[in-house]
Amino acid sequence: MTTLMEIRHVTKRYGGGRLSGEGMTALSDLSMTIDADRPSITAVVGESGSGKTTLARILLGLTPPTEGEVLYRGQDLTSLSGEQRRDFRRDVQAVFQDPYEVYNPFYRVDHVLNTPVNRFKLAANRAEGRELIAGSLRAVGLRPEEILGRFPHQLSGGQRQRIMVARAVLMRPRLIVADEPVSMVDASLRATILGSLRKLTDEMGISIIYITHDLATAYQVSDNILVMYRACVAEAGAVEQVVKQPQHPYTQLLISSIPKVSTTRDWLADEGDETIRAIPGHDGCRFVERCPVAMARCAGSIPPLYRTEAHRATACFQFDASPELAPAEMGQVLEGAVALPAPVKGVNQP
Amino acid sequence: MSPHSILRVHRLRVAFDHPLGTVQAVDDVSFTLLANERLGLAGESGSGKSTLALAILRMIKPPGHIQGGEVHLDGTELSSLDQEAIRRVRLAGIALVPQGSMNSLNPVMRIQAQIADALADHGVVLSKAELAARVADLLRRVGLRAEVADLYPHELSGGMKQRACIAIAICLSPKVIIADEPTSALDVVVQRQVMETLARVQRDLGAAVILVGHDMGLMAQFVDRLGIMYAGRLVEIAPIGEIITRPRHPYTQMLISSLPSLEARGTMHGIPGLAPLLRDLPPGCAFHPRCPKADARCRTEKPAVRDLAPGQQVACHHA
Hints:
Number of strands of chain B: 12
Number of strands of chain A: 12
Oligomer: heterodimer
CATH superfamily of the domain at 3-222 in chain A: P-loop containing nucleotide triphosphate hydrolases
CATH superfamily of chain B: P-loop containing nucleotide triphosphate hydrolases
Number of helices of chain B: 10
Number of helices of chain A: 11
């Protein structure tokens, strides 16, 4: 198994110091591995402040960790040679949220596609370069003749976002880190763009980290999921299980809070449903103030991730009978596309 | 006895003057809102739903203008009112919770002062004690502690700010509350609390609500009836159960089936093509380039809005 990237006990803190006081922990003791051989889509889901965007920036080498290490092919990012760094920048591509801000309005959109071709010498000559670009546009469902030669303002948000995915594809990366790639795009187009991403994984073997707050699209397009809450991983595992049988109280709250398109109207509850308690200055689980099943020990220490199933880990003391997850095992929990065993009739079911 | 209609929009048209041509942002929209009803207006960007909300309140600014149509609030035709009279209708008759309103709270005024501002603007003069009591009551109705009155917006969370905006919107007990994407910046857990607040407030006031947005799950769980807007037209309106289970307009059908569900993982498919630019609409039905049912008639003849049942309409040659 070739490990493409590894994060070991990474913590990221912002601020703090003598003048600014406390500071803020954006990521707390996070470990994970991304396997090069088994392409999959892993969703990182959480609300704002959960640390998911910080995780993206750490993976892309855009910000250094405060503690811990970030390794690319076994080598710490801070000690990559020039050539290794170039390889890293090709292997790990970013697709960001805003399809409006990333373009220089003075250049035609060809510019964002030509630049990497030239910079990384991806083509032997102009004709080959043109074909490479056309191919990457087609890979995301765009027609080159409708896109090339245009300025950004002449294209829709959806087209601009897909061009950024095409640009990421050009480099034949091993990993794409996509931070809210469809949140600014209309609902009817989201499925199309996410479908393009799924094709990249299935047909071109590119792994994707899909960062979002939208659990429904995460469920549809991903194989695995990491649920983050206030800088910590609350739950991780195969997406089907985590969404259908959530173990962590936060995951349960998240899923039950999503309004479903259904004729069953059970979403607007009666008042006073929400658990709130004030526990100032505690050192325990980040969710304890809102947790409906909090125990005394929850305010005293932070629960580790317990490996509750082959493809599931949950950071909750309710599961302390399960073994603690060693950091190196996170890669196994988040393995490639997981085929669920077919239910055996008559054994587990009536 | 038929239910009482509180708001009646009849053939409303809004245009924007653009150097490249006139843009029809709202095209001949008609619907009726019943007292106590929750109506949703769904559509994607550029569909005209926010413009429609502003047009109802006569808040369209140049280069936009209302070209025609009528808006009746509880029997009073709003376009017949002069500037001062329509100003009084805003907030007292129809209240708007605009998009991003939680970011529009005055950052240097405490919440109590912002509510007092709204009241004073409508000639409500209260003593210090009366004002404090009124504000405390409003805050309680939206589930905020009385102490919030003395806080500045930056001291409140997103959800609290949005609830403060709802408190301002209801301070004169309006008959209609129009909420334009009230929860789009909030996380799902907070969103639910804010929508519960809105539902409760609506029940207490006996007001009607128009919820403008694009989150179909939110619509499914909150509204009684849903209108679908496309390229400035109201292409379908029906009870929410009907929209979900038996949508009539092809756009609605494709929209519903393109929604990612949490029930089963399947192939994701969107609606092919793109929404048309409003200044460059195709002839005939604006949806025909993307419609699997389009025929020659659709390409030349704009479908009229047809009544299917009371409160249920569709604009399609094939529905």
